[in-house]
Design a protein that fits this description.
The strands form 3 sheets. Strands 6, 7, 8, 10, 11 and 12 form a 6-stranded antiparallel sheet that branches. A 3-stranded antiparallel sheet has the order 1-2-3. It has a 3-stranded antiparallel sheet with strand order 4-5-9, with no helix packed on it. By secondary structure, it is mainly beta. The chain is rod-shaped and about 140 Å long. The chain has one domain: Immunoglobulin-like. A hairpin with a 2-residue loop joins β10 and β11.
C-alpha cells in the first residue's frame, strides 16, 4: 500500500511538471518572487533555442576570367589552332522552384529586477523630547508600490504594501500597517517615562500580489529593511513661583 501511494505521488508530480512545461510552449509562464531584498519577475515562452546561432563565415572563391577571343592567344609552334564552334542557346521554359521556409520555434526568456523605495525614521519633537509627553513617530515610505512591466510580450501588474514593526528602545513594540505621521494627526506615538537615550528600530516589510491575464497571485517571499534612530529624552526644569 505504501509503495502504491509513493508511485501515485510521483506520477502526479511528473504529469504536472510535463503539463507546466507544455503550457510554457503554448502560452507565457510568469513568476514573481523576492530574492536578496529585490522583486524578481521572470517570463518564459516557447520551446526553441534562446539565442540565434551566429552565421558561418562566407568564403569568397576567386573568379576565373576566360579570354574573350581565345584564338588570339599565341600558341606554341606546331600546335594546330582549334576550330571555334557555336552552339545555339535554348531558353528554358521551366519555372524555378521555391524552397519552403523552415520556421523554428524560438524560446523567449526574460528577467526583470525591481528595486523598492526605502524610508527612514522621523519623530516629533525633533530635539530632546520630554518625559511623559507623547513623541510622534512616522516612516516616509509610500503607502503602496505599484508598477506595470512588459515581459516576453506579456503585461504584469505588481502591487505591494508595507508593514511596520516598531521597537521604541524601552522594551515596547508596536506592529502596524500605518506609516504614522507628525503632530497632531499621527497615529504612531509613544510616551517615555524616564529620561535617557533610546535606540529606536523600525523593521519595514513589503508584501503584495501580482496580476497577469486577469489572475491575481501572491508574491512569494517578503522583503524586509531595518532602519535606526536615536531619541534623547530629558526632564524639563521645574520652577515654583511665589
Amino acid at each position: 500500500m505504501r509503495k502504491l501511494l509513493i508511485y501515485l505521488v510521483l506520477c502526479t508530480f511528473l504529469t504536472s511538471s510535463n503539463a507546466n512545461a507544455a503550457d510554457c510552449i503554448k502560452r507565457a509562464c510568469i513568476d514573481v518572487y523576492t530574492k536578496d531584498g529585490q522583486i524578481i519577475i521572470e517570463g518564459k515562452k516557447g520551446s526553441g533555442p534562446t539565442s540565434k546561432a551566429s552565421p558561418k563565415p562566407r568564403v569568397i572563391k576567386p573568379k576565373v576570367v576566360k579570354p574573350i577571343f581565345p584564338e588570339l592567344i599565341p600558341r606554341p609552334t606546331g600546335t594546330p589552332t582549334p576550330k571555334r564552334t557555336y552552339k545555339p542557346r535554348i531558353k528554358s521554359t521551366a519555372k524555378p522552384t521555391l524552397k519552403p521556409k523552415v520556421t523554428t520555434s524560438v524560446s523567449l526568456n526574460d528577467r526583470l529586477i525591481k528595486l523598492l523605495p526605502t524610508g527612514g525614521i522621523a519623530y516629533q519633537p525633533e530635539l530632546e523630547p520630554l518625559v511623559n509627553v507623547p513623541v510622534y513617530f512616522w516612516s516616509d515610505l509610500p503607502t503602496q508600490f505599484a508598477t506595470r512591466v512588459k515581459i516576453v510580450g506579456e503585461v504584469v501588474d505588481v502591487l505591494l504594501r508595507p508593514g511596520f514593526v516598531w521597537s521604541f528602545g524601552d522594551g515596547t513594540f508596536l506592529s502596524t500597517t500605518d506609516a504614522g505621521g507628525p503632530y497632531p494627526y499621527g497615529k504612531i506615538k509613544h510616551t517615555y517615562k524616564n529620561p535617557g537615550i533610546y535606540p529606536v528600530v523600525l523593521v519595514q516589510s513589503w508584501n503584495g500580489n501580482w496580476t497577469h491575464n486577469g489572475t491575481t497571485r501572491a508574491i512569494t517571499g517578503t522583503i524586509k529593511t531595518t532602519v535606526f534612530a536615536v531619541v534623547t529624552v530629558v526632564i524639563a526644569p521645574t520652577r515654583f513661583m511665589f
